[in-house]
Amino acid sequence: MEIKKSIALVTGANRGLGQAYAQALLEAGAAKVYAASRDPSAITDPRLIPVRLDITNAAQVAAASVACRDVNLLINNAGIMRSTPLLAEGGEAALRDELEVNVLGLRAMIRAFAPVLAANGGGAMANMLSVVSWYVYPFNATYCASKAAALAVTEAARTELHRQGTLVVGVYAGFLDTDMAANVSGTKTPPRQVAERTLEGIRQGQHHVYADDHAVQLRHLVLTDPEGLAERMREAWEQGQGWRA
Length: 245
Description:
The protein is α/β, with parallel strands linked by helices. About 45% of the residues lie in helices and about 15% in strands. A seven-stranded parallel β-sheet has the order 3-2-1-4-5-6-7, with helices on both faces.
């Protein structure tokens, strides 16, 4: 799918990776970019069309699918991370929050916009996942659970929307240099890199975009040495150390 002259909607577009997606789309020649945010006043670029959207709010999702009925490219970027181990105090609340946004909100957007994309020739959607879709980083286990579920949602959508000609892309990256990972040490990926690699993947019709070196390395480990990776995570947990790239 060509990005030039496309009509796109980006969720969580007010900052960080969502903002980078919106800017990359504009620079790639998109004809129109809807920038969705819970607070549309946070969208200040006059080239963008602000849309009020909390993806956990069914009424707002439905309204967005009507207001943005010309969309042929959906970037499902909105998400939250609570940085919580599974059995920590507050772990259940964190898991519920992350599932609500990262899984149920994602499903709601896919379901609402599937007919929109079909009406506009099939188009494409890109779902922002994570390397922890594939393995468990124990310091952030509830987020890992939500992203593993989001991967399953993405794979199911790819199957169900194949006949209508919609390209469904999963995007994988390590920690990004955004507010979400502000308290994480180690190497972080520039959001613009993720956005540009995602758009290139869409152009090429790829189902999976490995948006940084961390994703490439982790995918290799998951496929070739899953037990070794799990042991590294156990050792890090027992030593009380977060990930060091």
